[in-house]
């Protein structure tokens, strides 16, 4: 029997590394990225309906489209059934943490549950981040986003910060100085957090320098994160402007996040665990 409504969490996607290794003839870039997912995110609820509808609620609802411009709507259309979608929006938009992509993947997973059949289409057609967001767990993402290899990694304690400045992904790719950069080094043999931190320090986000050029607030965020006690690594996610800092598992990151939020009330700050 199938149920009347289905609810799925849409976690923030964090690119711990993002190497741009080339560009295809159609302009899309070849990527090599280690991706993990946070315990902060949006929530989508999908119910059977006679016609499509989308309601956006929550603290980050302002400005989010409620029509076919929203990736949730396009995901439901791609699935091929009319549904009433409620999107409870907690992630900032155009923030490099895959908000729209994670929402779209959550709609597809919710519809799979609701209608009791797999999505027959290609998640990549909804966006380069949608295939990895379907996995919603630590993975390596390659090619333009369609090759996704799940990874066994330890949970990592992190603080996420977005300066509340939207950054357009195409503009950041366009501002890249080089497109033929080296891929990630081989993953560490040990999957202990210390070994992962050591390996991560030698990897990059190639979109970080062009994004900092377009959005100077990113450098300010990275400065603030880098000065937190016990920080193991601070870097930008995706095309920005959200940045993350990683910590040992016993670090009091909730208190640090509260202090950072008090010092920068206009920023979006979240303490989280990446898995
Ligand atoms: C930057 C990342 O977030 C890293 O995970 C993704 O590569 C972008 O994922 P996304 O936002 O789902 O991307 P899409 O909506 O497919 O593409 C947005 C724009 O980003 C650029 N783009 C995206 C992916 C890719 N492999 N090469 C690109 O050049 C293109 O200009 C494209 O028009
Ligand atoms: N479900 C959605 N939530 C937020 N914005 C959405 C959504 N669907 C479409 N959009 C539109 O997409 C734009 C990009 O927002 P999104 O949060 O997907 O960011 P992104 O930075 O491209 O994510 P990433 O690059 O990490 O995949 C927004 O400005 C908004 O107009």
TrEMBL record:
Gene3D superfamilies noted in UniProt: 3.30.230.10, GHMP kinase, C-terminal domain (3.30.70.890)
Residues of the active site: 13, 129
SUPFAM superfamilies from the UniProt entry: GHMP Kinase, C-terminal domain (SSF55060), Ribosomal protein S5 domain 2-like (SSF54211)
Catalytic reaction(s) noted: 4-CDP-2-C-methyl-D-erythritol + ATP = 4-CDP-2-C-methyl-D-erythritol 2-phosphate + ADP + H(+)
EC number of this enzyme: 2.7.1.148
GHMP kinase C-terminal domain segment(s): 203-265
Similarity section: Belongs to the GHMP kinase family. IspE subfamily.
Name the record gives this protein: 4-diphosphocytidyl-2-C-methyl-D-erythritol kinase
Encoding gene per record: ispE
